[in-house]
Each structure stands twice: as structure tokens, then as C-alpha cells.
Amino acid sequence: MVNRFKSVISRIIQIVIGDYWAEIISGHPHCIYYFGPFQTFLEAEAACPGYIDDLKSEGALGIKVVIKRCRPDALTICDEEVSYSNYSVE
């Protein structure tokens, strides 16, 4: 009974807030990439090394990863579309 309740609450949160996504920000090229959706934080976290390796192999530099619940409007946002005032990319 308790497990079923937790499952229902978890699904409601997922519907309202959204699934987990890996937001990967690169300093060069100036892009934000979204990878997902994932059902859990740990699932998203486990997938990140592969995405980072792919971006590095394509020459991306200054990579920062944020895992969060969201519903991205676009999976890739580059150059003039990116507002950097909210991000510190190293």
C-alpha cells in the first residue's frame, strides 16, 4: 500500500514538474544541450559521461553539467540563442 502511494506521488510529480534531463553547457561552441528524458536523477547522471565524451570528441570545451527536472523547448540551443548571464562556464 505504501509503495503504491509512493509510486502514484512520484508519477504526479513527474507529470507536473517533468522528467529528469541532463543539461550540458559548453563554452566553445556556445551551446546548451539537453539529453533525456530520464525517470530518475541517477539514470540521468549515469548517462552523462557518454554525452560528455561525444561532445569532447567533437571539439567542445568548457563543459558544465546540470541534471534537473524540466521540459526543454529545444534539445540544442547555440550561439546567439544562448543567454550566458545565468551560467558560469569554465
UniProtKB/TrEMBL annotation:
A Pfam family matched in the record: DUF1816
Name of the protein: DUF1816 domain-containing protein
Species for this entry: Nostoc flagelliforme FACHB-838
